[in-house]
Amino acid sequence: MRRLLAVMVALLAVHTALLFVRPSQATPAFEGEGLDVGVVFDVGGRGDKSFNDGAFLGAERAIRELGARVRYIEPGEGTDREAGLRLLAAEGMDLVIGVGFIFSDDLAQLSREYPDVRFAGIDYAPPVDAAGNMIPPPANLAALRFREEQGSFLVGALAALVGDSKKLGFIGGMDFPLIHKFEAGFRAGVQAVCADCQVIAQYAGVTPEAFRNPGRGQELALSQYQSGVNVIFHASGSTGLGVFEAARRRGKLAIGVDSDQQAEAPGFILTSMVKRVDEAVFSAVQSVRDGTFQGGIFQLGLAEQGVDYVYDDHNRALIPDSVRARVEALRAEIVAGRITVPFTR
Amino acid sequence: MSTSPESGRERPATGATGSRVTSHEPRLLVATGVRKAFGSVEANRNASLEVARGEIHALVGENGAGKSTLMRILAGLHAPDDGRVELDGRDVTGWSTRQAIDAGVGMVHQHFMLVPTLTVAENLVLGREPRRGARLDRAAARAEVETLGTRTGLVVAPDRLVSDLSVGEAQRVEVLKVLWRGARLLILDEPTAVLSPPEVKDLWGVLRRLTAEGSTVVLITHKLDEVMEISDTVTVMRAGETVGRIATRDASPAAIARMMVGREVRLATDRPEAGGSGPQDEPSHDSRAMSRAALDVKALVVASGRGDDAVRGVSFAIPPGEVFGIAGVEGNGQSELVEAIAGLRRVSSGTIHLGARDITSLGMRERGDAGLSHIPEDRHRRGLVLDYAIADNLILGRQHHFTRRGVLDRGAIAANAATQVAGFDIRPPDPRLPAAALSGGNQQKVVIAREMGREFPVLLACQPTRGVDVGAIEFIHARIRAAAAAGRAVLLVSADLVEVLALADRVAVMYDGRFVTVLPRAQASAAVLGPYMTGLAGRGATTP
Amino acid sequence: MSRSVPGSFAVAWLAPLIALLIAAVVGDILILSFGQSPGDVYRLLLEGTWGNAYGLGQVLYKATTLTFTGLAVALGLRAGLFNIGAEGQLAAGGFAAALAGLAVPATTPAFLAVPLCVVAAAMGGGIVGAVPGALKARFGASEVIVTIMLNFVVLALLNWLVAARLHVGESLHTPPINAGAVPRLADLAPAFHGSAANTTIVLAILTAAAVGWYLFRTRAGYDLRATGLQPDAAEYGGIRVGAVRFRALTLAGALAGLGGVNYVLGYKHYYEEGFASGSGFLGIAVALVGRNHPAGVPIAALLFATISQGGLAVNAIVPKQMVEVLTAVVIIAVAVTVPEVQRLAAAGRRVA
Asked: Over pLDDT 70: what percentage of chain A?
């Protein structure tokens, strides 16, 4: 018994001593005036090389260029989403950003509780009340939504023009409205340049797991390539890695999504339909600094540079100048409002 | 086990009983002041041993006295925490098994360490195979077995598979294996536990021959008759300590037992003869059988679970007041027979009646309520929930009698525990202690108290004194006798022939799932029963 | 209770204390390796949890779910069964509660709606627990494998039901329940404002007490513990081992299912995909640290809830992974220390 007590006292002494160790580079507490921004990622979101990392890039740029001070929170479980937002809101941050549609309910709730804090929600989906009616966001909440259908329209046209086939492929992750926007835009883009072309659209599943299933992605892509498809556009998270693998094996082309994915299968990625989450986050911070922040729903499309497709040194060789010109013409039509891209199937 | 129940006992001074040996033989092995603890359990605390060259040295003690631990230290399987071991005057404390084997110390374990799918010869040379090129030289291995066999008398056919051998033969292979590795000092851990009387005789012959050739034998046992018969010197251990060392010729079983336990004991063999109230003065067997049997088993067949039948048509009836003993080498269907009667094992065919009631298809609980008590053969596995308090163990199987609307009646459980702990002298007398904290003997007393401390017309007593110290054996035997005298029918199954002969009014020998003979005790003796136990006699005998 | 060796009381408390100190020291070293001051991090951690009513509320909320899953694992272990299915049982319980809440009309009075939803949660989890229970009792199938596999099946099925049939708008959750919501603690004590803590915590405490009573005061509990400790002895004691195992896993599933009440009735009022992911598995750690005892489980649940919520509070200066490592260190420290300390204490008693 005495030995046990001795062990306990020794441990306690070590612990107490360590408590007072203060490494030189330790982060000092937040203090003083400045632009304080909080970002809450989704559970397990950080490091996804897409959406959450896009938000991170935008915030880092805001630190560099706008002198913002940013606090990041990575929740450990579902309940922590609200807790993370609340933690930041309670500290009186100037702007609190929730990354992902799953934050919608929590953001709607908190923006009402903290009217002096500004909030922004990436892919914010307006919650519905018990009767099923949409609840518009309050004035201190900016809902940053993307017109994925517009970017998808352009890559659809591009795919049809370089695909050398009447069949085009689409592989979605989870079969639900957010992804239907990609499919609808892609179809419309294909039809715009090739009226008799056909789009084969398939989904990896009906649960969120469908975004994390490369095996299924490869399976679907191989069968599409087999049936004569030469280009596949995926909107399926890491399931798309399987699509790329299939493209590499069959020597066909694939189109990436959200961020520039050409590095995943160099030479086999025709382009990527990028969602400029970094841009959206950066502009949100900028608007707060400039005092121009406004609540409401913002649809970020081609005109706002919220979505785009990649055209650079990596894929210039795959896209003839004539094709490029045709696609850019379509972009102008959309920006000018002469073409309305559908967002539902 | 850490809480020692020895407190109530008197401990004689070391060596106070019997004369000290003053051997002139040179000491082959000397161990002094050995201490070895496993976790909180001190298996050896002041163990010592002196073995003279060329003798058969018996190491005796109750279960848990530390005999096996000491031997495992000698064989290099454990390193002692303290103390010194010398072989031929050389300090070998804490050596490895390899060093022990090289120095000629070999141990035959209680549990065989043979590969059943290999032949005798292959097992013998395993690990040190004679080779011809890269291949095992089978002829050489076979020759080794035969040479060694003729020299020592340990004859086993070298080409038989170990899985086909009887227990006695397997043990011979173990001994051969140790000898083949050049052992000059043989340690045998309870070698006779699994042997029938003729096999024991053979083993003694082999050991005598080996010592005549200059080998030395250390024999671990707790059977006093074996000590008297075979050994030259006896070392007695109690509670991890060596308490005495005497020459066998100067010792008596009673004296050794006293040293083992630390007080006077009455041995099972000291059966009260021609007393006023002994069971043998009851009406004779024939007339008793006329009265209604308390337990009546007819043509019972029980599957072994291995594809054949373990019990192949056994019938018997036990009248009230009789102890019916079943002898036999273990593994001949006794366990399955008892389990089937108790309700732990399904009956393939046949019937079991308790009095007039057919209990063949009743559950455990119903059989208990019908008046069947059962002391199971393995108290650690079946008889007790070791982590349960004594009080809770004392209601196991009868918990429904200590329940009111689904809730345990703590008051009744405590009252029951107080009565039983006092009535059966369970020590320490604290019913809140877990059963695991008790000595083997006191654990068995808990089982006995539960099964016998209530109304029961029939008792199944299976190995009731296995692994129990001499003092508790005496207590348990007295209880069984008293139960029979009070008109209870007792079915006694024991691997210990002495126990069966001491308690039973009739003795059946079970071999290969059948009763090969049933004799009144007056006609039964080790000499008569031995051939039946090995299957040499009574094949095909029908049960009465 | 089960092993009342005199003096073990001190050991029972000393061992976890030493384990926690070891974990704290390991945590110090981890924090230093991230270039931060342990003093700052621990201060922030405590301020963000027990330092204010909101943080405390969050801790209580998380501890409530963990108490249920911890009890679910502990009850299984008492019966000698390793229930790794609390994750799926919890989700099924939450889903069932939401379905019940959706099925009743909005005008249903709380005294009817709440018990109905609670019973639905217990049944939802209980059914998921009964499957491995039945397979174990009838065929001797390993409950470890069956419960693990059933997690995948249940979660996939529920996700599909929500995603394909029940979700509203672009979300992954069901519509809000019509009736059956229970009050938040903030409704009773405004200081808790904003925290998810709700009156389900009362249910958790009552459930823990009921499990204790069941295990140690009833014959069914006697049979269950005997089965867990020594199935052969239980069989000898007239206990129908298969039936006890079935009952134990079904009850364990029901306990985990009740955890769904905390989220669905107490917090969000709808079922959302992955609402408590990880709480089922963390229940294993809670049971281990709580020594499978109904009194220890809520305390262990508070501990892990504190680490979880505190991790969020210090997330700004140390990465989330540090908290995950710290959780693992606590588990390992307890698993290693408790038997070791008992050994030392026992040795000490002998010498004394």
From this structure: 95
Helix C200-217 / helix C296-313 crossing angle, nearest 10 deg? 150
B5-104+184-261: in CATH 3.40.50.300: yes
Q: Answer yes or no: is pLDDT of B298 > 50.
A: yes
Q: Taking CA A95 as the corner, what is the angle to CA A93 and CA A101, rounded to the nearest 5 degrees?
A: 125
Question: Which residues in chain B are contacts of C9 at CB distance < 8 A?
Answer: none
Q: List subunits contacting chain A, requiring 3 or more Cβ pairs under 8 Å.
A: C
Beta carbons of A241 and A48 less than 8 angstroms apart: no
Which region, left, alpha or beta, applies to residue A268 given φ > 0 means left and ψ of -120 to 50 means alpha? alpha
Q: Does a cis peptide bond (omega within 30 degrees of 0) precede residue B272?
A: no
Closest CA to B222 of B196, B261, B185: B261
Count of all residues that appear for chain C in the document: 352
Q: Do chains A and B touch (3 or more CB pairs under 8 A)?
A: no
Q: Which two three-digit tokens encode residue B402?
A: 């200590």
C3 touches chain B (CB under 8 A): yes
Q: Tell me which CATH homologous superfamily contains domain B287-533.
A: P-loop containing nucleotide triphosphate hydrolases (3.40.50.300)
Whole-structure pTM value: 0.78
- Residue C191 main-chain phi, psi, to 5 deg: -60, -25
| Nearest Cα to Cα of residue A182 among A309, A91, A332 | A309
Please tell me whether residue B411 adopts helix, strand or coil conformation: helix
Query: Based on C-alpha coordinates, what's the Rg of chain A?
Result: 23
Closest Cα in chain C, distance from residue A62 (Å): 17
Q: What is the ipTM of this complex?
A: 0.85
For A126, the domain range is: 36-146
Which residue does chain C place closest to A22, by CA atoms?
C37
Q: Is the dihedral of CA C189, C194, C195, C197 positive or negative?
A: positive
Nearest Cα to Cα of residue C207 among C85, C325, C298: C298
Q: Do C276 and A130 touch (CB under 8 A)?
A: no
Q: Do C25 and A15 touch (CB under 8 A)?
A: yes
The 10s digit of each residue's pLDDT in A222-245 is: 999 999 999 999 999 889 999 999
- A22 band by pLDDT with thresholds 50, 70 and 90: confident
pLDDT digits (tens, 9 = 90+) for B390-449: 999 999 999 999 999 999 999 999 999 999 999 998 888 899 999 988 888 889 999 999
Q: Which two three-digit tokens encode residue C101?
A: 């809440």
CATH code assigned at C41:
1.10.3470
